[in-house]
Design goal:
Radius of gyration: 14 Å
Number of domains: 1
Shape: globular
Strand content: 5-15%
Helix content: 40-55%
Strand order of the largest sheet: 2-1-3-4
Order of helices and strands: EHEHEEHHH
Oligomer: single chain
Structural class: alpha+beta
Length: about 130
């Protein structure tokens, strides 16, 4: 496993927040750094310019490789071999399958957008075209 992993998530999304907390505290993934995208706007702007929009899912930086959305979640969950939390175990089992991830992930994105709307939080980090 690459020792330099950076997981970028939307800190305003309750699902993303809880998942990132579980990753940080209970995943056992070595070298994992977790960042709230809303607190790292220069980095997010650079990623958006390359086509990676946090509104379409979390972003995982593996050294020079960028995984986005379902691909990021699938990869990270497939690396969790001994989660120390029952919820994380269930999430890892569910999303370690590419097929299940591809089927479920669009529903998570839709639910995230609804939750942010209900909370009155802009789902987009950047509103102007770059």
């Amino acid at each position: 496993m690459n020792s330099k992993l950076v997981f970028l998530y939307d800190g305003e999304c309750p699902f993303c927040n809880h998942f990132s907390e579980l990753l940080e505290l209970r995943s056992g993934l070595p070298g994992l750094t977790i960042k709230n995208a809303r607190d790292n706007l220069p980095e997010m702007k650079s990623l958006l310019e390359k086509g990676y929009d946090i509104d379409n899912g979390a972003i995982l930086l593996k050294g020079d490789e960028v995984l986005h959305g379902a691909q990021a979640i699938n990869w990270i969950c497939s690396q969790i071999t001994k989660p120390s939390d029952e919820l994380l175990k269930l999430i890892a089992l569910t999303f370690s399958s590419k097929l299940r991830t591809d089927l479920i992930f669009p529903l998570l994105i839709l639910t995230r957008r609804i939750l942010l709307f209900v909370k009155g939080v802009p789902r987009k980090l950047f509103f102007n075209s770059l």
